[in-house]
Amino acid sequence: MNVEYTARKYEITPTIRREVETGLNKIRKILGDRFETKVILGVEKRQHKAEITINPPNGPIVGLAQTTDMVSAVNEALDHLQRQALKYKTKWLSKKRKAGKKFDGQSLEDNMEAALGLAENATVSVLVHKFPSVARTTEVHLVHAKDSVALRPMTLEEAIKEAHFRDKDVFVFRDPTGKLIVLHRTRDGKMELIEAP
C-alpha cells in the first residue's frame, strides 16, 4: 500500500504518521491492500485540516476533517473514511436486500464491523461441535417388495425380461432345477447374476 503525504504550512511528525498508518490498517482489513492513499495535511486560519483519499478499484473514497488539533483532525478523517469504506464494502448487500434490514437487531454495517473486529464491543459467537466417539447406527427401514420375487421357476432370459418389465434393480427367482438366483442391476445398467448356494 502506497501512502503519499502532502503538507501545506505544516510539518508532518512521526506521531501523525503512526496515527495515519494505524487508521489505514483498519481500513485495509475492510477493503484489502488494493488501494493507494493520498494524505493532505494543512493549516489555514488556525484550523488544522486533514484530507485522506483512498483509491479502491471502483472509485475514490475521501475522508475530510477540520479541527483545532492535527491529531484529532486525522482521527476524524480516518473515522469518516472507515465508515465510507464499510458502506463501500456492503454496497452489494444493501442493493440486494433492503438497506434498513437488520440481522439479530443490528444493521449490516454493525455486523460487518463486529466481524472484522473494528467495533468496540466486538463479540463473535462461536458454536463448537463435539462429535461422539462412537457413531450411532441409524434405524433400518425395511420395505417388503413382493414384486421383486418370482413366484414360479423361470429361465435366465425370462428373469431378465421380467426384471426389466418390473423396473427392479434386484430380482430373485428360481431356475427350472430349483436353484435360487439373484439378478442385480449395477449403476451402469449392466445385470449381475448372483447364484445362492
Account of the protein in words:
It is a single chain. The protein has 197 residues and is an alpha+beta fold. Among the domains are: 3-89, Double Stranded RNA Binding Domain, CATH 3.30.160.100; 146-195, Sigma 54 modulation/S30EA ribosomal protein, C-terminal domain (SHC Adaptor Protein), CATH 3.30.505. It contains five helices and seven strands; from the N terminus they run E-H-E-E-E-H-H-H-H-E-E-E. The protein has helices at residues 14-31, 70-89, 91-96, 108-116, 156-166; strands spanning 3-8, 36-44, 47-55, 61-67, 170-174, 180-185, 191-195. It has a four-stranded mixed β-sheet. A three-stranded antiparallel β-sheet has the order 5-6-7, with helices on one face. Strand 2 and strand 3 form a beta hairpin. The mean pLDDT is 79.
Task: Give a brief rundown of this model.
With 197 residues, the protein is α+β, with helices and mostly antiparallel strands. It contains 5 helices and 7 strands, in the order βαβββααααβββ.
Describe the structure using short key phrases:
197 residues, alpha+beta, Double Stranded RNA Binding Domain, SHC Adaptor Protein, 3-stranded antiparallel beta sheet, 5 helices
